[in-house]
């Protein structure tokens, strides 16, 4: 058990300390959106709505799995007490 825990911690340490270069263009996207909003455009608002829309689903999935886990544990606990 201790060797598995040690191995897991070592792997996590290596993964957290490794870094890779990302070639994302977030700064460019931000500049384009800010320019568009300053000139009276609405693309920035749509982009922000899209980001919020995409961000919501992982949280909803986590809550759903948490509820299913809770209900399954409750069902198992009740069947053991009967």
General description of the model:
There is one protein chain. The chain is mainly alpha-helical and 82 residues long. The chain is built from 3 helices and no strands. It has helices at 2-17, 26-38, 43-81. Helix 2 packs across helix 3. The protein is flat.
Q: What share of residues is helical?
A: over 70%
Number of helices: 3
Main sheet makeup: none
Low-pLDDT residue intervals, each spanning 5 or more residues: none
SS class: mainly alpha
Bin the strand percentage.
Answer: under 5%
Distance, first to last CA: 33 Å
Q: Outline, from the CA principal axes? A: flat
- Number of beta strands: 0
Give the domain tally: 1
Give the averaged pLDDT, no decimals.
81
The value of Rg in angstroms is: 23 Å
- What pattern of helices and strands is seen along the backbone? HHH
Give the helix/strand layout.
Elements: H1 2-17, H2 26-38, H3 43-81
Helix pairs in contact: 2-3
